[in-house]
Amino acid sequence: MKRLVVARTSALGDVLLCTPALAALKEAQPEAHLTFVTSAPFAALFEGLPFLDAVVPWDLHRDRSRGGIRRLAARVLRPGPVDLYIDLQNKVRTRLLGHRLRPARRLVYQRRSTGQALLALVGYDPPRTHPHATRAYLEVLAPLGVRPPPAGALRPTVHLEEAARAAARVRCPEAGAIAVAPGARHATKRWPVSHFAEVARTLCDRTGAPLLAVGGPQDGPLLDAFAAAVARPVVDTRDLDLPVVAALLERARLLVSNDTGPAHLAAAVDTPVVAVFGPTAESRWAPFGAQVVRTEIACAPCTNHGGARCPRGHHRCLRALAPDEVLAAALPLLEAAA
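Structure (tokenized):
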């Protein structure tokens, strides 16, 4: 049996956006054995998907050294040699894994051209606006004759066990929560917490729904600031595994989010999303089916992934975006969900 191995380890949104490519690959080669290598915290989201034969979790803290990558490669190789390795990350760690696997053939996602990579080294990294990341991952498969699915079939996919859904019901017994995701890895992608609080208060007042704040342990200070600003009971997810977070989002009525992983997770479980964009391009990164809200400003988008500070020092792309504009996008989605 032909063995295919695909690797993408980070970040959460990017890993989710790979799943249409994985499904298309399996459809094109149904007899092949398809293994997906991804970051350990994400792996449980994909175990059980019908188009994956195996999911190998990669502990990036423990196994990022050469010795760790050697151990990981040994686990991947246990069922036998690899015929095709598809590197959808194209970073040093995934290239080293490919070297260890010694596949008969290799395909690699080109994150940048050589010229763009050289410019990025000196701090000039203009945003890529097309194609959408989902289609960019699918383009890697073109040499295999894999046909991209139609636009309506590009929703990311996760698998949820009943245990995750049961844990979600314990954490938030009432369905139909208003969910917000005020965090993001990069500071320039964060809409002000006070604005999130104003939107959340208004939506909860109108619906009587519970309030869910989505984020991980790294978002603790932001979640605390949000809870203080909104001044009402908040269920937050900082201590939960991702399958339980996904199950909570599945039960939510709506998610209002920055351009960050939880927005793609909500899209994967078919929850309506209002996505607030500032320095990044929605044509490249918008969650599937999301209602995108942004301020039209000449200098945005200005970056591929965000950064620690606005390159122009004013951050108007998000600071100038009023809560009323986000509410105008959210309220019709609430009515449709009802």
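The CA atoms of residues 20 and 154 lie 6 Å apart. The chain has a mean pLDDT of 96.
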